[in-house]
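Quick check before the chapter quiz. The format below is the same one you will see on the exam, so make sure you can read both the input and the output lines.
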Amino acid sequence: MSYKYIALLEDWVDRTVLKQTMREEFGVGLSGEVYERPVHLQPYFENEYNEGLLPQAERLCHQHICLPVYQGMSTADTTLVTESLKSALEQQKSTI
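Here is the expected output.
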C-alpha cells in the first residue's frame, strides 16, 4: 500500500525544476500532486470562477509536492528521499 506525503514548498522553489532534479540526479520520482488545480478552477466551474478568487488554494496547489511513502519503505529509502530533497533544494537556492 502506498500513499502520499505532502510537503509545502516555499515560494522561491520552482517545483518543476525540483522534481526534474530529484529524478535525474538522485533517481527519486515524485508522484503527481494531490490537487494539480483547485476545485474552483476545474473545467466544470470554468465559466463561473476566475483565477485569483481563492489565492491561498491556488498557492497550495502550485507549491506542494508529494514525497514517496509506502508500506515496507526502508530506512535507506527514506534517507535517500530526504537527502535528495535537501540537496535539490540547496542546488536550486544557490541559483537564485
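If your answer matched, good. The chain has a mean pLDDT of 90.
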